[in-house]
Amino acid sequence: MAKLISHKMLGLAIAYYVLRPHTMVQALSYAGLALIGSITPDLDGLHKHRMLLHNLFSCLVTSLIIYFLLLTITRNLLPIEVDSIGSALAYLLAYMSHLIADIPTGNGVSLFYPFSKKKIYILGLKYDNIVYNSLLIILATLLLYDYFTSTTIVVV
Q1: 103 touches 121 (CB < 8 A)
Q2: What is this structure's pTM?
Q3: What is the full DSSP assignment across 52-114?
Q4: Which SS3 state, helix, strand or coil, does residue 137 take?
């Protein structure tokens, strides 16, 4: 796994770059769920690390749960309208960025668990490799720079 700060920055940057939130409510909900999605895979640290939550199946299941929770909460409890689909997609994109960022590390990722326990990995880097983490942070910074210099956020 890459360092936690790398996962958070990359997840947020990819969600913003792809989804391009244009209102303050979108920007805040996307950011919150992207940050949660970017660290969710590491919650499997106590049980079969890099299997239970480091896979596409868990990514899709938890994204659907997030979507339905948001839909229920925004319809029944919040006085503002939250983009449930966009917010759930921000979570999904950040979660997937975490999985992809962990592939170059030595432990790899069981992407197709529970259907296969085979780990996918390249390079065999240590999770705290300073060059790799620096590259992830630079990529995230470039994506965020592009987003913030080309998007106007409207406060509604």
Answers
A1: yes
A2: 0.91
A3: SSSSHHHHHHHHHHHHHHHHHHHHHT-SS---HHHHHHHHHHHHHHHHHHHTTBTT-B-TTTT
A4: helix
> Distances in Å between the alpha carbon of 69 and those of 87, 120, 145?
11, 32, 31
| pLDDT per position as a tens digit, 13-52 | 999 999 999 999 999 999 999 999 999 999 987 666 677 8
Domain boundaries, the chain: 4-150
Secondary structure letter of residue 23 according to DSSP: B
In the chain, DSSP finds a helix count (H) and a strand count (E) of 5, 0
What is the token pair recorded at 73?
Answer: 């909460």
The 10s digit of each residue's pLDDT in 51-70 is 789 999 999 999 999 999 99
CA 147 to chain centre: 17
CB of 112 closer than 8 Å to CB of 118: yes
Reduced to 3 states, what is the DSSP secondary structure of residue 125?
A: strand
pLDDT band for position 125 (50/70/90)? confident
Tokens matching residue 145: 């720079």
